[in-house]
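Onboarding guide, step 5: your first structure request.
Type a short instruction followed by the sequence, for example:

Predict the 3D structure of this protein.
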Amino acid sequence: MAYEVLAAAYDHLTSDVDYESTASSVVDLLRRNGVKDGIVLDLACGTGTLSYLLAEEGYEVIGVDASAEMLSVAEQKRDSRSTYTQPIFIMQDMRELDLYGTVDACICMLDSVNYITVPENLLEVFRRVHLFLNPGGIFLFDINTPVHFSEVEGRTFYDEDDQEGVFCVWRVARTDEDALFQYCVDLFFRDDESPDMWRRQSEEHYEYAYSPEAVESMLRRAGFINIELRSSISGDKLTGTERRAYILAFKSPDQPEEV
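The system replies with C-alpha cells like these:
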C-alpha cells in the first residue's frame, strides 16, 4: 500500500508545493462558475493541506483518501481555535467512493488520478464522482502526462529536509506494461538518539501514463459535459508539451440528482 511509510515525511518533502496558490486558483475557478460556497469534495486529499485551505475560504470540505496514515496526519492539523468549519475526513478508495449525499464540486490534485493504474477502474472513478455531484457540479483534477513520464523514466531523484532529518531517494522505471511506471522510494530517517545513524524504509508506487485525450473520452463516457483540457487551473490552453495537464468537466445542470 502506497503512503504507509511516506506519510510521516510527506509534508516535509513537498514543502516546495505552493498549496496557497493552488487553493487560490481553485477558489477563483469555483466562484467564477457559481460555486461561491457549498460542499467541496477533496478526492485523494492526502494530508489535508488543500482541504484546510478551501475550508478557510468558507467551503464545507469532505476529504477522502485511501491511506489511513495520510489521514492521520491530516487529523493532526485540526485547530480547536479555528473560526471556520474544518474538513471532514473519510478513508475510502476513490474507486469505491460512497458519500452520504451530493457535493457541489470535486477536486483531485497532485496527479492522484495517475495512481488508478487500470483504465476501466478510472472510468469507474469518474462515474462515482459524477454520481455524487449536484446538477451543474464541477470536477477539476490534474494528471501527469506521457510527456512527464518520458522525461523522468530511468532517472533517480532525491529530496531532503535536513532540519527534520529526512532524506528521500526515488527512481522511476517503466514496467512490462508500456504505460505503467514504477516509483521505488527509499526514505532515510535520522535516529533521534543517535544522530549519526539513519533508518531506511522503502515502498513502491505505480502510476499510469494517461493522455489528456484518453481522459477526456472517459469523462464523456461517465456523463460529463463541457470538458476542457488546460495547461493551468486558470484556463490556459493545452499545447501538448506540458508535463502536467488540468482537466475541468461539468455535470449537466439539467440532469436530475442520482443519489
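Each response can be followed by summary notes, for example: The helical segments are 7-13, 19-32, 49-56, 68-75, 119-132, 146-152, 212-221.
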